[in-house]
Specification:
With 367 residues, this protein is α/β, with parallel strands linked by helices. The protein has helices spanning 2-5, 12-29, 50-54, 69-76, 95-102, 122-130, 172-185, 203-209, 229-242, 258-267, 287-296, 314-323, 343-354, and strands at 35-38, 59-63, 84-90, 109-114, 137-141, 160-164, 193-197, 217-221, 248-252, 273-277, 284-285, 303-307, 310-311, 331-334. This is F-box domain-containing protein.
Length: 367
Amino acid sequence: MIRTLIKDRISFDKYNKLEQEIYKLFVNNCKDIKDFLWKTTQSLSQYSGASTCFSRLSSLGIDLEFVNSTALFGMAQICQNIEDLKIWFYNGNISGLIMFLDNQKNLRSLYLYFKGSEKQCIELSEVIEKKADTLKELSIKPNITLISPKFLPSLINLQYLELYNKIELEEEIVEMEEWENYLSISTFPNLQYIKTLFLPICSDYKLIEKSHENILEIKIYRRYEDQDSIYTEKLIKAIANHCPKIERLTINAELKNLNGIKEILLNCSRLKRIDLSAYNEKRLNCDELLEVLVNFSSNTLYIFSFIDNWNFSVNSLKSFFENWKDKHPIIFIESFDEGDWFLEHKMIVKKYIDEGVIKKTNCLLMM
């Protein structure tokens, strides 16, 4: 607002004073707001009317590149009923934030984005453990090793779990071993959504096996160098045997896993979307995969996505759409190189869009 109103450059002191006046207006005139993104160096709790303005906040985002510990201490006295809390650029234990978290009485969803830290955040882990009774959603990005995983076994009410693991430093391997250990002993009986990026190779399928068959969505991404055929088989088997309610699935797979994909299609009758990616040096002819999909998909399945090195012959693609005519119109998404997807492929897709077999969306690459 200040930059819009004032075109000429002004000193930091003048800028700060003008910003204070704007926030005073905001705090004095806004009552009982429910959702707020806190991205200012101003200590908002000091303004007259702050209690009336912020005491009923239920959803709050905090950008720690702006908000300091002192400001958080002040807001902790006012906001104690946050249900959805998002924290960006966390960098080491911040006493004001620890107190703010500790004061929350009904925290249901916590999103943590780390900027980097010299050591693991132990106090943060301890305060998360205290919120285990109410916490149902947890997301940690971009590197889970920056927080101690000791809180994991306590989160028995968790329904949504998102863990990203972008290890870049050698010293983080020790922390990753600690995470692997705690993931192996943790059970989330109410888990419905699991999204992981580069977790230790056995962690995600073991979580699925212990999920009490409540999972609705799985998204698992792995590095090329972490691909392991035995792991992939166990993951697919865990999904087929323990996820009867699953609706959306994203995993890496290979042609050798077709029998496992078939098991998933047969056992997971509520599946609506499946996204498959393949890590290979050469693109694979997946005509056989299309046959499995058309022959064993339930009536609920209608979104397909093939990413990284999958390929189809023209005749197989045409046969797939012909055999799908009596089913629900599909959304068909294919990631391809121009050298493998020819004019004939595009013409077939266009033909079945016109016939209503494929549902036209912005995701489709057409002529």
